[in-house]
Amino acid sequence: MSSEMPDGGPLKRRGLILILSSPSGAGKTSISRSLLGEENKSDNSIHLSVSVTTRKRRPSEVDGVHYNFVSTRQFESMRDHDDLLEWAEVHGNYYGTPREPVEAALQAGKDVLFDIDWQGTRQVLEKMRADTVAVFVLPPTAAEQRARLERRAEDDSDVIARRLSNARDEITHWTEYDYVLVNTDLDESVAKARAILNAERCRRERLVDLPDFIAALDRDLAAETG
Ligand SMILES: Nc1nc2c(ncn2[C@@H]2O[C@H](COP(=O)(O)OP(=O)(O)O)[C@@H](O)[C@H]2O)c(=O)[nH]1
Ligand SMILES: Nc1ncnc2c1ncn2[C@@H]1O[C@H](COP(=O)(O)OP(=O)(O)O)[C@@H](O)[C@H]1O
């Protein structure tokens, strides 16, 4: 369940799951793409969990990269074979996280980024609380949220209206998250998300070798001090 710290330090640690959730248009996809881009420039990498969804692909999306786009029948088959770590119906479509790649990554000490809603977050927290860090992203104002959805220009106006009205229910789940980011300035939000990730990587519970490391340090100190 561990590997060398990717930053080259001597401590081994378990991988973690970083969840980003938000009402549509708050900016979680932008934050996660930025985080993934930056991370992958270094060894200190985090990988996106690619969800399966029955939603229609947006023009900017690539099948297999941003989502695996599947039919309802394919989705239901995965769900019924317990191939999904969590799943939910959101804005009238199914979304789910394939289980196997996540389990493999964590076992290898790698971190995984989830862009999932509050229903999925709840399921992951129930199953894997110790490995999971949940971050909720909010828009600064409702008017800005609408403006972002309109500027994104990838959804029809009825889809945008549905997403805005669903936001009222979604934001009631803020207490179920470990951290909250109000995404006013994108660069600042990305910096905060990175800070959360870096701090969580240092949590003592994830450092599986720590007792051995401390014991070795103590032996060296004893030798140094005679
Ligand atoms: N539970 C769950 N939610 C997901 C998953 N993938 C995406 N979502 C959520 O589904 C919602 C809609 O996502 P999407 O259609 O990409 O629209 P967007 O939020 O406007 O970018 C968002 O809240 C996502 O976080 C998943 O695998 N599981
Ligand atoms: N801090 C920000 N300031 C201004 N525009 C933003 C900011 N964050 C994201 N956006 C823009 O808002 C739109 C919605 O962002 P997106 O990341 O797709 O949101 P979500 O994934 O939460 O639905 C996109 O066009 C994106 O470029």
From TrEMBL:
<keyword id="KW-0067">ATP-binding</keyword>
<comment type="function">
    <text>Essential for recycling GMP and indirectly, cGMP.</text>
</comment>
<protein>
    <recommendedName>
        <fullName>Guanylate kinase</fullName>
        <ecNumber>2.7.4.8</ecNumber>
    </recommendedName>
</protein>
<dbReference type="InterPro" id="IPR008145">
    <property type="entry name" value="GK/Ca_channel_bsu"/>
</dbReference>
<feature type="domain" description="Guanylate kinase-like">
    <location>
        <begin position="15"/>
        <end position="198"/>
    </location>
</feature>
<keyword id="KW-0808">Transferase</keyword>
<feature type="binding site">
    <location>
        <begin position="22"/>
        <end position="29"/>
    </location>
    <ligand>
        <name>ATP</name>
    </ligand>
</feature>
<dbReference type="InterPro" id="IPR020590">
    <property type="entry name" value="Guanylate_kinase_CS"/>
</dbReference>
<dbReference type="GO" id="GO:0004385">
    <property type="term" value="F:GMP kinase activity"/>
</dbReference>
<keyword id="KW-0963">Cytoplasm</keyword>
<dbReference type="InterPro" id="IPR017665">
    <property type="entry name" value="Guanylate_kinase"/>
</dbReference>
<dbReference type="InterPro" id="IPR008144">
    <property type="entry name" value="Guanylate_kin-like_dom"/>
</dbReference>
<comment type="similarity">
    <text>Belongs to the guanylate kinase family.</text>
</comment>
<keyword id="KW-0547">Nucleotide-binding</keyword>
<dbReference type="InterPro" id="IPR027417">
    <property type="entry name" value="P-loop_NTPase"/>
</dbReference>
<keyword id="KW-0418">Kinase</keyword>
<dbReference type="GO" id="GO:0005524">
    <property type="term" value="F:ATP binding"/>
</dbReference>
<dbReference type="Pfam" id="PF00625">
    <property type="entry name" value="Guanylate_kin"/>
</dbReference>
<dbReference type="GO" id="GO:0005829">
    <property type="term" value="C:cytosol"/>
</dbReference>
